[in-house]
From TrEMBL:
InterPro entries: AAA+_ATPase, ABC_transp_ATP-bind, ABC_transporter-like_ATP-bd, ABC_transporter-like_CS, P-loop_NTPase. Belongs to the ABC transporter superfamily. Keywords: ATP-binding, Nucleotide-binding, Transport. This is ABC transporter. GO terms for biological process: transmembrane transport. The lineage of its organism: Bacteria, Bacillati, Actinomycetota, Actinomycetes, Kitasatosporales. It comes from Streptomyces dysideae. PANTHER family: D,D-DIPEPTIDE TRANSPORT ATP-BINDING PROTEIN DDPF-RELATED (PTHR43776:SF7), TRANSPORT ATP-BINDING PROTEIN (PTHR43776). GO terms for molecular function: ATP binding; ATP hydrolysis activity. Residues 4-229 form the ABC transporter domain. CDD domains: ABC_NikE_OppD_transporters. The keyword Phosphoprotein does not apply. It holds the Pfam family ABC_tran. It comes from the Bacteria.
Length: 229
């Protein structure tokens, strides 16, 4: 069974059809890239996969469940298993919260926080993404962009996801730290068997990082591209 199976997805904003009959599937442990120019519908596809924006039509099967027809109450327990990582590393963390609270929050919301071992779990997650757990005391603005993106990934991992939807996860980062974050994502995938829907406009990064890539143009999949393997 694919981890994710998207069929004939359509996303509209009023008269604008941002995603037009897009279909693809993604296996557990696989990285599938969506590549294409600005405005071709990559982010809209990501939002619809995550059900953060309900599509006009089409189906999104995640771990065998069709999501588009589920009410929010039935989606809620599934949401932790599909986590977004967005382009702006600072945007996904509240500026008012310390990093350790941002990473602990999903555990608390999902009823998995335990005062005895919760702090150790947060430290373990920070360590797993290559951050010294002492950084947990800091606020997002006290971290570099790359460190902040790592903290965002730690927060996503706190939910024990199976799928990460990575929307331009390194595009806003200094070129010198991009490779480190991509290597971290590759290690996490090897260790945890995560599936990645990897949205990226940079073909060189896609070739290096993705197993398979789909090219989008004007809301449609225009062609498959060879990936790195
Ligand atoms: N909230 C919105 N309201 C109206 N139109 C939107 C909205 N979001 C996106 N669009 C339009 O939908 C189309 C697809 O946008 P989308 O952001 O999905 O593309 P993208 O490939 O991710 O581009 P970028 O890389 O610039 O984010 C564009 O024409 C865009 O202007």
């Amino acid at each position: 069974m694919p981890l994710l199976d998207v069929r004939d997805l359509v996303v509209r904003y009023g008269a604008v059809t941002a995603v037009d009959q897009v279909s693809f599937s993604l296996e557990p442990g696989e990285t599938l890239a969506l590549n294409g120019p600005s405005g071709c519908g990559k982010s809209s596809t990501a939002l619809a996969v995550l059900q953060l924006r309900r599509p006009e039509s089409g189906e999104v099967h995640f771990e065998g469940r069709e999501l588009t027809t589920l009410p929010e109450s039935d989606l809620r327990p599934l949401r932790p298993r599909m986590q977004p990582v967005f382009q702006d590393p600072y945007g996904s963390l509240s500026p008012r919260h310390r990093i350790r609270d941002a990473v602990a929050e999903p555990l608390k919301i999902q009823g998995r926080w335990n005062a005895d071992d919760g702090p150790a779990r947060v430290a373990e997650l920070l360590d797993r993404v290559g951050l010294d757990p002492a950084y947990g005391d800091r606020h997002p603005h006290e971290l570099s962009g790359g460190q902040c993106q790592r903290a965002g990934i730690a927060r996503a991992l706190a939910s024990d996801p199976r799928l990460l939807v990575l929307d331009e996860p390194v595009s806003a980062l200094d070129p010198s730290v991009r490779a480190g974050v991509l290597n971290l994502l590759a290690d996490l995938q090897d260790d945890l068997g995560l599936g990645y829907l990897f949205i990226c406009h940079d073909r060189a990064v896609v070739r290096h990082f993705a197993d398979r890539a789909l090219e989008m143009r004007a809301g449609r999949i225009s062609s498959p591209q060879p990936g790195s393997s």
